[in-house]
Amino acid sequence: MQYVAKLSREGKNWLVDFPDCPGCQTFGSSRDEALEMATEALEGWLEVHLEDGAAPPRPRRRKGTAVAIGSRLSVALQIRWLREDLGITQAQLAKRVGVSQQQVAKLEDPSANPSLATLE
Question: What's the predicted TM-score (pTM) here?
Fold first, then answer.
């Protein structure tokens, strides 16, 4: 999964801003350094929103530089968005797929590390 970043120069530094994630910004002394910092800033911003119980915004198609997030965080986001789309709780999703509510909660936890078998 990818979010689009907008890069701009501010004095000697490069600023990275994510239009889909208000307030998520970082910078670097070079364009490459700023892009390296971008993934960490974006993932941190998304994780905080998930941990606070919010469903972070979905990435929209835009012009800019794509910044990929890790697969573990991507899975957590997609499960959260699915529940939001269906208007159901973790317990209701768990019942539909035949697992416990705790297992769904772990899948939505950006710090969890589910195995492929768990995801299947």
Answer: 0.84
